[in-house]
C-alpha cells in the first residue's frame, strides 16, 4: 500500500523521460506535402482586422491572408487552396514547430530572440509597424509621457507587453499593465473603462478604434511609437526549398509594384511587355521558377491572384479599408518608404 | 477481522501519500545532485541547465499586482515565484469562501423552510451547471461595467476609493531598505485614476468570487450528502436526549458527517486550486499567466509548461497530504477504511 505512490511516481518519470527523448520530426519536404495535400496550411490570428479576419461567410481576408494566398497561387495554381488555422499568440510558434502549419502569417514581430531560438525562419517583412497607445479622449492625455501611474491593458505573450515594461523603465514613467490571454478580452476590458490606455501595434489600434469602440471619436491614438514592429511571415527551419519559395513570392509582389505590374494590367502586359524585368515576373522571360522547384508562371499567378504589394496594402489596410492607414514606412524605397524587393532575377 | 483491522489502522508514523511522493522526488533530486560528477548524471544536469538556465535571465515584463513585489528587471524565476504567490493569494481566500458558503448552502438545502431550501437548490443548480470560465468572464465584465469610472472614483471612507481600478485603501509600507512597515501609504485620486495604497483589483475580485461561488455549489452538495449519510436513528436519539436542533447538528450530525465530507471536500479544494489557472482569462497575473508570457518571450514552451505542471502537482499533493492528516483526525476512532 505504501509502495503505490512511488510506483506511480516512477511511471510518471519514465513517461516524462520518453517524451523528452523523442527526437523532433524529420525535416520533410514541405513543398511535396503541400502539393500532395492540395492546400497550403496557413497559421493566422483569431481575427485582427486588416491582417487576418474572417467575414460573416467565413472567408478570410487581410494582408497576412493575401501573403498565404499568393504562395498558394504560386505553388498550387489556385489562391483559394489555403487552409487557414486560427492560432492565438501562445500557440503560434508551437504550431509552426510541430508542422501543423506550413507558414505562419500572423502579424508576428521579427526579432532576434524569435529568429534565433524558435526553430523558424522569417521570410520577408510584409508590414513595418510600431507600438502605440489608444486612450479615451476624456482623460485629456495628449502624449504618452503623461501616462504616469496609468493602468494599461494589453494581450499577454506579445512583444507589446515587454515593450511597455522597457519603455516604462527607460522613460521613468511607472505604469501598471493588466494582461489578458485573449486579444478580445483585453480590448473589451479597455473599452469597459478598466484601463486608461490600450497598447498594441498601431495598425491594430486603428482597427480597434474604428471597429470595436462604442464611439470611435471618443478615442485617440497617441503620437508616440514606443517600438519597431517589423511584421513578417515565418516558416519552420530545416526546409530551405520551402523557405526560398516563402521568401521569393512576397519579393515578387513588391517588385511587381516597382515595375508597374498590377492585377488589372497583368494579362495585357503578358502579351505585350518588352521589359525584361517585367517579363521575368510575367513568366515570359527567363525561367526562374524551376530554381524554386516551381514552374515558369509562379509569380504571374501570385500577382494575378492578389495583386502587387501596393494593391494588397490598399485593399486591406489602406485608405479604402476600415483601418485607413497611411502608406508611411510601407511605401516603396524609391517613394520614401522602406520596402525594397530583392531582385527577382 | 480484528487482525485486518489492526493492520489497516494507520501506524503512528505513516506519512500521507502526497508527502511520500514529494519526498521521493526530493530524494531522487538530492541523489542526482550528489552524484553530479558521474558521467551519466552530469549529462542530466547539463541538459537541465541548457533547458532551464533562462530562469536566471531578466524577465522583461511586469506584473500588475501581487504580494511579492516584482520588477521587470528581475529574473524569470522570481516572476514564476510571484505568479505562484498570486495563485495562492487567489486560491486560499476562494477556498475559505467556498467552504463557509458551501456548508451554509448544504445545510440550507435540508432546511425545513421551503423558501430557504428553494434558494439553495436554485443556487446549486445554476452555478454548478454553467462553465466556470463563462462565469468568470461574466463576473469580470459585470464588475468593470458597474464600478464607477476611474476619472470619477467613489470615496467610501477617507482614503478608501472604489472605481474601475478596484477598491483602493491605505496600506502600510516600509521605507526604502527597511523590512518592517513604518507608515501608511494613502491612495489618492489623480486626474485619471487612483494611485497609491493597496487595491483589490477587479481581476482579483473576479477570480476570488468566481472560484469561491462556483466551488461553494459543489461543497454544498457534499455537505448535504454528508448530513444525509448520518442515519435517521442518530438524529432521533439526539432529539430523545433533549438536544435542540442546533446542538443536534453540531454535536451529533456534523461530527459523523465529516467522515463522508472530508475526502470529497479534498477533491473540491484540489479542483479549486487547479481552476485558479483560469484567472489568466480575466487578466489576473497568476502562475499560468506568467508562464504564458515567459514561454512567448523565450520560446521555451516545454520548459514553462513543465514548471507549471510541477507546481500544480506539488500544490495538489500538499493539499491532499494536509487533508489526509485532517481526515485521520475526524475519522471515527478504531475504524479504518
Count of beta strands of chain B? 8
> Numbering strands along the chain, what is their spatial order in the largest sheet of chain A?
10-9-11-8-12
CATH architecture term of the largest domain in chain A: 3-Layer(aba) Sandwich
User: What is the overall pLDDT average of chain B?
Assistant: 87
Low-confidence stretches of chain B: 1-8
Distance between the termini of chain B: 13 Å
Q: Helix/strand-derived class of chain B?
A: alpha+beta
Overview of the molecule:
The complex is a heterodimer of chains A (345) and B (337). With 345 residues, chain A is of the alpha/beta class. Helices cover 39% and strands 15% of the residues of chain A. Chain A has 13 helices and 14 strands. In chain A, the strands form 5 sheets. Chain A has a 5-stranded mixed sheet, with helices on both faces. In chain A, strands 4-1-5 form a 3-stranded parallel sheet. In chain A, helix 6 links the parallel strand 9 and strand 10. In chain A, helix 3 packs across helix 9, helix 3 packs antiparallel against helix 12 and helix 9 crosses helix 12. Chain A starts with a helix and ends in a 29-residue tail after the last helix. Chain B is of the alpha+beta class and 337 residues long. Chain B is built from 11 helices and 8 strands. The radius of gyration of chain B is 25 Å and the shape is globular. The N terminus of chain B is likely disordered. Chains A and B meet through helix 1, helix 5, helix 6, strand 10 and helix 7 of A and helix 2, helix 6 and helix 10 of B.
Amino acid at each position: 500500500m505504501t509502495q503505490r505512490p512511488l510506483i506511480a511516481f516512477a511511471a510518471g518519470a519514465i513517461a516524462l523521460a520518453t517524451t523528452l527523448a523523442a527526437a523532433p520530426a524529420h525535416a520533410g519536404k514541405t513543398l511535396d506535402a503541400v502539393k500532395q495535400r492540395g492546400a497550403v496550411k496557413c497559421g493566422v490570428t483569431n481575427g485582427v482586422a486588416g491582417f487576418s479576419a474572417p467575414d460573416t461567410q467565413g472567408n478570410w481576408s487581410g494582408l497576412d491572408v493575401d501573403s498565404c494566398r499568393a504562395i498558394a497561387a504560386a505553388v498550387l495554381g489556385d489562391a483559394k487552396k489555403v487552409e487557414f488555422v486560427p492560432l492565438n499568440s501562445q500557440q503560434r510558434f508551437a504550431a509552426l514547430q510541430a508542422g501543423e502549419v506550413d507558414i505562419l502569417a500572423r502579424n508576428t514581430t521579427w526579432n532576434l530572440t524569435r529568429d534565433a531560438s524558435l526553430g523558424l525562419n522569417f521570410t520577408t517583412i510584409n508590414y513595418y509597424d510600431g507600438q502605440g497607445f489608444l486612450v479615451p479622449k476624456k482623460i485629456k492625455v495628449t502624449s504618452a509621457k503623461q501616462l504616469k501611474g496609468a493602468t494599461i491593458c494589453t494581450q499577454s505573450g506579445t512583444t507589446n507587453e515587454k515593450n511597455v515594461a522597457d519603455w516604462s523603465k527607460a522613460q521613468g514613467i511607472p505604469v501598471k499593465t493588466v494582461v489578458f490571454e485573449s486579444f478580445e478580452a483585453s480590448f473589451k476590458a479597455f473599452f469597459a473603462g478598466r484601463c486608461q490606455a490600450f497598447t498594441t501595434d498601431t495598425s491594430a489600434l486603428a482597427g480597434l478604434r474604428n471597429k470595436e469602440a462604442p464611439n470611435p471619436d471618443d478615442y485617440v491614438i497617441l503620437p508616440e511609437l514606443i517600438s519597431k514592429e517589423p511584421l513578417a511571415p515565418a516558416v519552420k527551419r530545416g526546409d530551405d526549398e520551402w523557405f526560398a519559395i516563402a521568401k521569393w513570392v512576397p519579393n515578387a509582389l513588391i517588385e511587381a509594384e516597382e515595375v508597374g505590374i498590377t492585377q488589372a494590367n497583368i494579362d495585357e502586359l503578358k502579351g505585350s511587355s518588352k521589359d525584361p524585368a517585367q517579363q521575368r515576373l510575367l513568366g515570359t522571360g527567363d525561367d526562374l521558377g524551376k530554381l524554386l522547384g516551381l514552374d515558369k508562371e509562379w509569380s504571374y499567378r501570385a500577382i494575378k491572384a492578389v495583386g502587387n504589394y501596393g494593391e494588397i496594402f490598399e485593399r486591406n489596410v489602406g485608405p479604402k479599408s476600415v483601418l485607413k492607414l497611411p502608406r508611411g514606412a510601407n511605401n516603396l524605397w524609391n517613394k520614401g518608404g522602406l520596402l525594397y524587393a530583392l531582385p527577382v532575377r | 477481522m480484528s487482525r485486518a483491522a489492526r493492520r489497516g489502522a494507520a501506524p503512528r508514523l505513516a506519512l500521507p501519500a502526497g508527502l511520500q511522493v514529494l519526498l521521493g522526488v526530493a530524494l531522487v533530486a538530492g541523489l542526482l545532485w550528489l552524484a553530479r560528477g558521474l558521467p551519466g548524471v552530469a549529462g542530466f544536469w547539463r541538459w537541465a541547465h541548457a533547458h532551464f538556465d533562462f530562469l536566471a535571465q531578466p524577465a522583461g515584463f511586469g506584473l500588475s499586482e501581487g504580494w511579492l513585489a516584482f520588477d521587470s528587471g528581475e529574473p524569470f524565476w522570481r516572476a514564476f515565484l510571484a505568479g505562484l504567490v498570486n495563485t495562492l493569494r487567489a486560491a486560499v481566500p476562494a477556498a475559505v469562501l467556498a467552504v463557509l458558503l458551501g456548508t451554509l448552502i448544504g445545510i440550507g438545502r435540508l432546511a425545513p423552510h421551503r423558501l430557504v431550501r428553494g434558494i439553495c437548490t436554485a443556487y446549486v443548480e445554476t452555478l454548478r451547471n454553467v462553465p466556470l470560465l463563462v462565469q468568470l468572464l461574466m463576473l469580470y465584465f459585470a464588475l468593470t461595467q458597474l464600478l464607477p469610472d476611474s476619472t470619477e472614483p467613489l470615496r467610501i471612507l477617507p482614503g478608501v476609493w472604489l472605481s474601475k481600478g478596484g477598491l483602493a485603501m491605505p496600506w502600510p509600507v516600509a521605507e526604502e531598505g527597511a523590512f518592517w512597515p513604518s507608515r501608511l501609504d494613502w491612495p489618492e485620486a489623480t486626474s485619471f485614476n487612483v494611485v497609491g495604497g493597496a487595491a483589490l483589483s477587479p481581476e482579483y475580485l473576479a477570480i476570488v468570487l468566481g472560484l469561491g461561488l462556483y466551488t461553494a455549489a459543489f461543497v454544498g452538495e457534499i455537505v448535504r450528502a454528508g448530513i444525509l449519510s448520518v442515519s435517521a436513528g442518530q438524529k432521533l436519539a439526539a432529539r430523545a436526549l433533549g438536544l435542540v436542533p442546533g446542538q443536534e447538528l453540531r454535536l451529533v450530525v456534523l461530527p459523523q458527517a465529516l467522515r463522508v465530507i472530508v475526502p470529497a471536500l479534498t477533491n473540491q479544494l484540489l479542483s479549486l486550486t487547479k481552476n485558479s489557472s483560469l484567472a489568466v482569462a480575466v487578466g489576473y497575473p497568476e502562475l499560468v499567466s506568467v508562464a504564458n508570457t515567459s514561454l512567448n518571450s523565450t520560446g521555451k514552451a516545454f520548459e514553462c509548461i513543465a514548471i507549471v505542471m510541477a507546481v500544480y502537482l506539488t500544490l495538489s499533493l500538499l493539499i491532499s497530504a494536509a487533508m489526509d492528516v485532517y481526515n485521520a483526525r475526524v475519522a471515527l476512532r478504531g475504524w479504518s477504511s
